[in-house]
C-alpha cells in the first residue's frame, strides 16, 4: 500500500472514530454541534485513560477551576471548556511539568501555543472535558 493511500485510509478511519466519540460524548443530550475550532477535534487516539470520574455537569467559574491547582486535583480551562486532567499528568508525552503548569488556570494560551491546530492533542484533551467555563 502506498503512503498516500495509507494516509487516506487512516484519515477516513480517524473521521469515523471521531464521529463515534462525538456520538458517545453527546449522545445523552443529542447535542452534536460544530463549534469554532472543531476541525481540531478530528482525531482520536489509543487513549487508555478513562474519561474523568466527574461527569460533565454544566459550567464552572475560573474561581472553581483555581481550587483544583495541584497534582491531586488538576483542572484547567481551555478555550471555554473545563477539563480534569489529573490522570493525564503522568501520561503526557511531554512530561509532567507542562500539565502541572495548567492546574487551576486558564490554560488556553499555553495549550494553543503548544498544540494549536493539532488534531491529536485536541482529541486527547476532549476526553477529559467535565464542563464549560462560565462567562
CATH architecture of the largest domain: Roll
The chain-level mean pLDDT equals 76
The end-to-end span amounts to: 50 Å
The tally of strands reads 6
Tell me the radius of gyration: 15 Å
Strand content: 15-25%
Listing every helix as H and every strand as E from the N terminus to the C terminus, the arrangement reads HEHEEEHEHHE
Question: In the CATH hierarchy, what is the class of the largest domain?
Answer: Alpha Beta
Point out poorly predicted stretches.
Answer: 26-55
Q: Based on helices, strands and strand pairing, what is the structural class?
A: alpha/beta
Number of domains: 2
Principal-axes shape call: elongated
The count of helical stretches stands at 5
CATH superfamily of the largest domain: Cytochrome b5-like heme/steroid binding domain
Write structural notes for this entry.
This protein is an alpha/beta fold and 135 residues long. The chain has 2 domains: 1-33; 46-135, Cytochrome b5-like heme/steroid binding domain (Flavocytochrome B2, Chain A, domain 1, Roll). The chain has helices at residues 3-26, 62-66, 96-100, 108-115, 119-126; strands at 59-60, 69-70, 73-78, 81-84, 105-106, 129-133. Strands 1, 2, 3, 4, 5 and 6 form a 6-stranded mixed sheet that branches. A hairpin with a 2-residue loop joins β2 (69-70) and β3 (73-78). The protein starts with a helix and ends with a strand. The model is unreliable at 26-55 (pLDDT under 50).
List key phrases describing it.
135 residues, alpha/beta, Flavocytochrome B2, Chain A, domain 1, six-stranded mixed sheet, 5 helices, 37% helix
Amino acid at each position: 500500500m502506498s503512503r498516500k493511500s495509507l494516509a487516506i485510509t487512516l484519515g477516513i478511519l480517524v473521521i469515523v472514530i471521531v464521529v463515534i466519540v462525538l456520538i458517545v460524548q453527546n449522545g445523552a443530550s443529542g447535542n452534536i454541534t460544530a463549534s469554532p475550532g472543531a476541525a481540531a477535534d478530528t482525531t482520536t487516539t489509543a487513549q487508555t485513560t478513562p474519561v474523568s470520574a466527574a461527569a460533565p455537569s454544566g459550567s464552572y467559574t475560573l474561581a472553581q477551576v483555581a481550587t483544583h491547582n495541584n497534582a491531586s486535583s488538576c483542572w484547567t480551562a481551555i478555550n471555554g471548556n473545563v477539563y480534569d486532567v489529573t490522570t493525564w499528568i503522568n501520561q503526557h508525552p511531554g512530561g509532567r511539568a507542562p500539565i502541572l503548569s495548567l492546574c487551576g488556570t486558564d490554560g488556553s494560551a499555553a495549550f494553543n501555543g503548544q498544540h494549536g491546530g493539532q488534531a491529536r492533542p485536541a482529541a486527547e484533551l476532549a476526553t477529559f472535558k467535565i464542563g464549560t467555563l462560565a462567562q
